[in-house]
Amino acid sequence: MAAVRLAPRLRSLPLRLPAPDAAAVRRSCSCGGSSAAPAPARAMSSSSTSVSPSPYTTLVGRVSCEREIKKSKFIAIAAPVPDERSAMSFLNEISDSRATHNCWAYKLGEQFRYNDDGEPSSTAGKPIYSAIISSVIDMVMVVVIRYFGGIKLGTGGLVRAYGGVASECLKDAPTCLVKPKASVGMEVPFDLLGTIYHQLQHFQAEDIKQDYDTGKDGTVMVTFKMEYEKIENLGSAVNSACSRKIELLL
C-alpha cells in the first residue's frame, strides 16, 4: 500500500495496533495567532484508528540490464522511488532523446502508471508493469529504452522484449525489507525519564528528542520514531516499568 504521511499534530494512539502482514524478501541487502495555545492531544477511538502500513520489499539502488533483440537494443533501468514526483524525476534523468522509445512503469503501493511512449498500445508499458508485479518489488520504477535496429518485432515480440528485459533487470537485483516507522511522543514526568529512555533504547527507538515547553510543570515531551509493529509492546513495557499509564501520542 502507499506510504502514510503522519500529521505533525500529536494525537493519542491506542496501544492496540494490528500487526502488519509479513512481506517476503527475495534477497536481503546489508543495507493561527501567535498567542493562541496549542490544541491539546486528543484521544482517538478504536474506530478512528487506521491500519498501520505493512512492510514492503524494494530495491537497494539502481540496477540495469541491456539486451539486443533482432538488432534493436533494449536497456532497462530500475530504481527505488518514494513517490510519483521522484519517479518522474528519474524518468527525465535517464530518458534518451536519441532513442526510439523510452517506455516505463512504476508501482507505489497501490498506485501505478505505465506508458508505451509511441509503441503500439499495451505492448511496452504494461509488460514492464507486469514484470514489476511478478517481482514482488514495490516503490519502484522501471524504464526500458529502445534503439530501433531496423527489424519490426510485431506486437507479440514487443510484449516479450519489453517484459523480458524488465523482468531480467529485476530478477537478481539486491532488495531490502522496509518497515515503515511512526512518529510517536509521550508526556513524561521528570522522575521517569530514565525509565522511559531505557525502554526506548530496548525497543530501538530512533531520533529521540525532548521538548520541555509543554505548559505543564515537571513534564517533558519525548518524541521518537519507531516501527509500527513495536509500538504496542513498547506501550505495555512502559506502563509496567512506570507502574502508571503513560499515553503514547501519534
Explained architecture:
This protein is 26% helix and 28% strand. By secondary structure, the chain is an alpha+beta fold. A hairpin with a 2-residue loop joins strand 2 (63-69) and strand 3 (72-80). Helix 2 (125-135) runs parallel beside helix 3 and helix 4 runs antiparallel to helix 5. The longest helix has 18 residues, at 154-171.
How would you summarize this macromolecular structure in one to three sentences?
The protein has helices at residues 84-94, 125-135, 154-171, 193-202, 228-242, and strands spanning 56-59, 63-69, 72-80, 101-108, 111-115, 140-147, 175-178, 181-189, 206-211, 219-227. By secondary structure, the chain is α+β, with helices and mostly antiparallel strands.
Strand ordering within the main sheet: 2-3-6-4-5
- Overall outline: elongated
Amino- and carboxy-terminal Cα gap: 20 Å
Elements, N to C (H/E): EEEHEEHEHEEHEEH
Strand content: 25-35%
Low-confidence stretches: 1-50
Q: Mean pLDDT score, rounded?
A: 83
Query: Helix- and strand-based class?
Result: alpha+beta
> Number of helical segments?
5
Oligomer category: single chain
**Radius of gyration from the CA trace?**
24 Å
Count the strands? 10
Helix percent band: 25-40%
Tell me about the largest β-sheet: 5 strands, antiparallel
